[in-house]
Design a protein that fits this description.
The chain has 100 residues and is mainly beta.
Length: 100
């Protein structure tokens, strides 16, 4: 059985035991919380409606960082150039239960 969950602005496919990275949350390490379910698949059964009671429970493992992204701006003949970096912060979670 697996489910498609919504975590922030993204959707991810998860199964029990998977470790995924979601957008940063303020939940302490070791605590659990639930993610809303968009779709569940159990063998041949696909369920996309009536999922108000369905949930995916995840356990927080810790914080991680994404890859470094370098942003460069340059304008010809004016002497303007700007260099900026960014590194997105994520929370690593383990899926412990899928209830449909």
């Amino acid at each position: 059985m697996y489910a498609i969950v919504r975590a922030g602005a993204k959707q991810q496919k998860v199964a029990v035991g998977d470790v995924i990275e979601i957008d940063l949350v303020t939940t302490p390490v070791g605590d659990t919380f639930t993610l809303p379910v968009v779709l569940t698949v159990d063998g041949e059964t696909i369920k996309a409606t009536g999922l108000e009671k369905a949930s995916v429970t995840v356990e927080v493992l810790g914080g991680t960082k994404g890859p470094k992204i370098v942003i460069q701006k340059y304008k010809n003949k004016t002497g303007y150039k700007k260099r900026q970096g960014h590194r997105q912060k994520y929370t690593q979670v383990r899926v412990t239960d899928i209830s449909a």
